[in-house]
Each structure stands twice: as structure tokens, then as C-alpha cells.
């Protein structure tokens, strides 16, 4: 069984990580860099490792990016220098390619006099094969997003000297069918913004109408903040071109390859509660998850509480359905940066307490239902349980709004390898014992999907079932392009021997 190691606890503290937020703004006459900045701010939860923006004034495409938060990367003075009529923005968490400035996005290229910039949310599953076939050995490109840009550059190079306004668009369309895995992309050249959603639609991407322009973004709150009126979500397999002629929707993949599989983690954990996915409220879905949990796994208790943040609406739903009063049992310190790395094991065990502290007067002597979104390594839940018991909780009944996470994600969520997943090898009863709660129940997959109120829409749930909608290579590692010596043999073999495409 997994240990209660302090390193694991520190890694577990933040839960699984997203793989980026993307924004595109086309709005002549509007302050596009400020609008993009605001939208990126609204998508900060999707990536805190780096932030960047590319802005075009019709002649020059300028990129500014930095490691850290959006507020670290941009200030008023920087934004004022970024004048133009279109922009794309990116907030990054790394799933292929390490957390370095080089891998911050947008990725920029100038090829044969043509400039473009690209932002990517998701994770390619055929990175090694693509790099091998294109002769791009590790070191030439450092992330799957960098690889996409390099491939577009190769296509542009082949266009020759005579320039056409749609060169970048055509180069992109030539590259897209070769990509496999998860990719919601925004791409800009001097005169247009292009948004792409992969044929499975793993990651969200939506379109909004601005006064005199358009905005695309990973989640609807980014549209809200810039005053864009929500129009629709991009379809899986859709390419949306935005330029001075308006919108053009292209569908480069054959119908037979369109197979919607929105990541169900977006609904119960990643997306903001004020987001809408598949046209449904994420907050309402989380409340419903709690209601269904109360029906599926009732408990005799005095108070229902949620683990902040995403456990809170589900706890409200559990309380409503069960009739057990809702109360706050944990206070979250909102000012813990992701960079918190304590120097000693003793201090690392304090990491959970630094972020979450029990409200003694609310939990002492009570039988508690504690609602949480997921269990990955289990170390956070174990420490939260210990803190609640030390605060006087009489009983703890843990209820999880998702099934046991048994498989890693290869589509843009940084779920650890199988060996680190508590549920990969242990039963629910063994997990209950490890965490130290009085009872434990996970929401079933069919109830989780039902709670979205979009049951027929198509979801990926591979991290629960191992049923991967897109094949993944053996030994996949996110650093294959940077540190080939750390890649498992299977993946290196692909780099060396996979046939050209
Ligand atoms: S494997 Fe899990 S986390 Fe990854 S895309 Fe599918 S549902 Fe989401």
C-alpha cells in the first residue's frame, strides 16, 4: 500500500493538474492585449507554471511570455506596448515538456517570412512517432506544442517565396490530420486567429461574440470577463478561422473520426464552477453529484462538509438530499502558491495543514460526512482525516464524487503513473483503512455521467476504466523530447524505429 511519505503528501496537495488554458481575441479597435490578459486571468486555474500572449498589429506578431502567474508575466506597461487587433493567450501547466521558460507558450515561429504563434491545451499521444518521422530528435523540439509549431513551419517552408494570406491556415490544415491525442489550439498569424478542437473534443473550447469582434477560450468565464456573449462550444474536429471577413468553420477530419470524449474530470474537478460544458452548468452538476452520492451511499451523521474547493457544491447537494445539515469544517488558505516546497520532511507534512485547517468548533464531537472530488494518491485525504480527528470529529464518512482513479491520463491531465495511484492495486476497503475513515464510498461512473445532465454527449473516463479512446504508446513520458535518457525503453524505441508518416 502507498506510504504516508511527506514527499507524496506535498505532491498530492494540489491534486491532479490541468494542462493549460487558451484564449484567442480578434477585435479591431478594441484593447485586445488587455482583453486577452483578463481572459487569461479567468483561466489561471488551468495552469500556473507560465503565461504568455502573442499580439499582432497586422504587420508584426509580438510574443511576451514568462514563468509563473499571469500577474507575474504582464503589467500595465507591458500591455500598453502590445498594440494590435488580434491576440492569443496561454496559461501553462506542463504535461509534455518540462516547466521551463523555453516551453512557455505561445510558441512562435517565423518561416520564409511568415510569422505565427500557437497555444495548446491538451497532450499529443503520438509525439515520439511524429518527432521521429520528421527527423526531429530530442533537443530540436522540447514539447508536443513545439513539435506542432515545427511541423507547421515545415509546411510553410514548402510554400515557397510567393506569399498568400492563407498560407498559415493551409499549413495547419496539412498538419492536423497527423496529430493524435488531445489538442485544443489557438493559432495567430499577422491577420487571423484560428481555433482548433481535436476530433474527440477532450478539452473544452468555446466561442463568444464581442462588440466588433470574437473571442475563443477554454472556458466560458473567460468570455464573461471580457464581455463576450457566449455563442457556442466548438465542435470536436472543428477548425474556426477568424479574420476581417468574419468566421469560417472548417471540418478537416472525416465524419468517421469525430468521436466526442470530453474529459469528465473537467466536470467534477478542473473547470470553474461558473463554467458551462456541453451547455450545462458545472456548479449544478457538482451539486447533483452530491445528491446522487447521498442516494447511493447514505450515512448517519450530524454534519455534511466539503473539502474546498470542488467538494463544496457536492457537499451542499449531499446535505440537501440527505437532510443532514451542511456546515463548514475546513478553512482554506487561499494564498498558498503552487511553488510551496518545504525544505524538510517534517515541514512538508505541514503542507496540507498550511492549506487546509479544521474549524474545531464546527467539527468537535460530530459525526461528519466529508465530500471530496477524487482520491489520487490518498495522502491528502489521510492527513485531512487526521486533522479532523485531532479537532474532535467523532466519525468521518468520506464520500467521493468520482469513481476510483486507477489509470493515468495521457490526454493533458497530470495524473501520476499507475504505481502512485492508490486505487490501482487496492480495494475500497483497503483504501478506507489507509485513509483512516469510518466509511468510504465513491460515486459510480453512471451516476457521475448522469449528474452532468448531458449523458448522451460523450465523455472520456479512461482514468477510471482504462478504456482509452485514443491509443497511447507504451512507456509514455512527458519529458521524452527533452530528456531521452529518462524515457522508458519502449518510447525510445519509437523514436528510433517508428515508420514515417
Ligand atoms: S483519462 Fe481521465 S483525466 Fe484524462 S482525459 Fe480521460 S477522463 Fe480526463
Overview of this protein structure:
The protein has 501 residues and is an alpha+beta fold. It has 2 domains: 21-260, Glutamine Phosphoribosylpyrophosphate, subunit 1, domain 1 (4-Layer Sandwich), CATH 3.60.20; 282-464, 3-Layer(aba) Sandwich (Rossmann fold), CATH 3.40.50. Helix content is 31%, strand content 23%. It is built from 20 helices and 23 strands. A 7-stranded antiparallel sheet has the order 3-2-4-1-10-9-11. The protein has a 6-stranded antiparallel sheet with strand order 5-6-7-8-12-13. The chain has a 4-stranded parallel sheet with strand order 17-20-21-22, sandwiched between helices. Strand 2 (50-56) and strand 3 form a beta hairpin. Helix 5 runs parallel beside helix 20 (489-497) and helix 6 (144-157) packs across helix 7. The longest helix is centred in the middle third of the chain and has 15 residues, at 282-296. Mean pLDDT is 88; it is low at 1-11 and 484-501.
Helix tally equals 20
Low-confidence stretches: 1-11, 484-501
Question: Strand order within the widest sheet?
Answer: 3-2-4-1-10-9-11
Name the CATH superfamily classification of the largest domain: Aminohydrolase, N-terminal nucleophile (Ntn) domain
Overall residue-averaged pLDDT value: 88
- CATH fold annotation of the largest domain: Glutamine Phosphoribosylpyrophosphate, subunit 1, domain 1
Whole-Å distance between the termini?
Answer: 43 Å
Q: Which architecture of the largest domain per CATH?
A: 4-Layer Sandwich
What spatial form do the alpha-carbon principal axes imply?
Answer: elongated
Structural class: alpha+beta
Which oligomeric state applies? Answer: single chain
**Into which percentage range does the β-strand content fall?**
15-25%
CATH class of the largest domain: Alpha Beta
The tally of structural domains comes to: 2
- Helix content, binned percent: 25-40%
**Radius of gyration, CA atoms, in whole angstroms:** 23 Å
Query: Bound compounds, please?
Result: iron/sulfur cluster
Largest sheet properties? 7 strands, antiparallel
Amino acid at each position: 500500500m502507498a506510504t504516508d511519505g511527506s514527499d507524496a503528501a506535498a505532491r498530492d496537495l494540489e491534486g491532479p493538474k490541468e494542462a493549460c488554458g487558451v484564449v484567442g481575441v480578434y477585435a479591431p479597435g478594441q484593447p485586445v492585449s488587455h482583453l486577452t490578459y483578463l481572459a487569461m486571468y479567468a483561466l489561471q486555474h488551468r495552469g500556473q507554471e507560465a503565461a504568455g500572449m502573442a499580439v499582432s498589429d497586422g504587420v508584426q506578431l509580438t510574443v511576451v511570455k514568462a514563468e509563473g502567474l499571469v500577474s507575474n508575466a504582464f503589467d500595465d506597461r507591458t500591455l500598453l506596448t502590445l498594440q494590435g487587433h488580434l491576440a492569443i493567450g496561454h496559461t501553462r501547466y506542463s504535461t509534455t515538456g518540462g516547466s521551463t521558460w523555453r516551453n512557455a507558450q505561445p510558441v512562435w515561429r517565423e518561416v520564409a517570412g511568415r510569422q505565427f504563434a500557437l497555444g495548446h491545451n491538451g497532450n499529443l499521444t503520438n509525439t515520439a512517432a511524429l518527432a521521429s518521422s520528421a527527423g526531429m530528435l530530442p533537443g530540436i523540439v522540447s514539447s508536443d506544442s513545439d513539435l506542432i509549431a515545427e511541423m507547421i513551419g515545415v509546411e510553410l517552408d514548402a510554400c515557397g517565396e510567393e506569399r498568400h494570406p492563407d498560407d498559415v491556415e493551409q499549413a495547419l490544415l496539412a498538419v492536423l490530420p497527423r496529430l493524435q491525442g488531445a489538442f485544443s489550439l489557438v493559432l495567430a498569424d499577422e491577420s487571423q486567429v484560428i481555433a482548433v478542437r481535436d476530433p474527440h473534443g477532450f478539452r473544452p473550447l468555446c466561442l463568444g461574440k464581442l462588440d466588433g469582434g470574437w473571442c475563443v477560450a477554454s472556458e466560458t468565464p473567460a468570455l464573461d470577463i471580457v464581455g463576450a456573449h457566449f455563442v457556442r462550444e466548438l465542435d470536436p474536429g472543428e477548425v474556426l478561422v477568424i479574420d476581417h471577413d468574419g468566421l469560417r468553420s472548417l471540418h478537416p477530419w472525416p465524419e468517421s473520426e469525430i468521436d466526442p470524449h470530453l474529459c469528465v474530470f473537467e466536470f467534477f474537478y478542473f473547470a470553474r464552477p461558473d463554467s458551462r460544458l456541453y451547455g450545462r452548468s458545472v456548479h449544478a452538476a457538482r451539486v447533483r453529484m452530491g445528491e446522487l452520492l447521498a442516494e447511493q451511499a447514505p450515512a448517519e451523521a450530524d454534519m455534511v462538509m466539503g473539502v474546498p474547493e470542488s467538494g463544496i457544491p457536492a457537499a451542499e447537494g449531499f446535505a440537501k438530499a440527505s437532510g443532514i445539515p451542511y456546515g463548514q469544517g475546513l478553512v482554506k488558505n487561499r494564498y498558498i502558491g503552487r511553488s510551496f516546497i518545504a525544505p524538510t520532511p517534517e515541514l512538508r507534512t505541514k503542507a496540507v495543514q498550511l492549506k487546509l485547517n479544521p474549524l474545531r468548533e464546527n467539527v468537535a464531537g460530530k459525526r461528519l460526512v466529508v465530500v471530496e472530488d477524487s482520491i489520487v494518491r490518498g495522502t491528502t485525504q489521510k492527513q485531512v482525516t487526521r486533522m479532523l480527528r485531532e479537532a474532535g470529529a467523532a466519525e468521518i464518512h468520506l464520500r467521493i464524487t468520482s469513481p476510483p482513479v486507477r489509470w493515468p491520463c495521457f490526454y493533458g491531465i497530470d495524473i501520476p503513473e499507475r504505481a502512485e495511484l492508490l486505487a490501482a492495486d487496492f480495494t475500497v476497503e483497503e483504501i478506507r483503512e489507509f485513509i483512516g475513515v469510518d466509511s468510504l464510498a465513491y460515486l459510480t461512473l453512471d451516476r457521475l455521467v448522469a449528474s452532468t445532465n448531458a449523458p448522451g454527449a460523450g465523455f472520456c473516463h479512461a482514468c477510471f476504466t482504462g478504456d482509452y479512446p485514443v491509443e497511447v504508446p507504451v512507456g509514455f513520458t512527458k519529458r521524452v523530447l527533452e530528456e531521452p535518457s529518462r524515457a522508458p525503453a519502449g518510447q525510445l524505441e519509437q523514436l528510433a524505429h517508428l515508420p514515417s508518416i
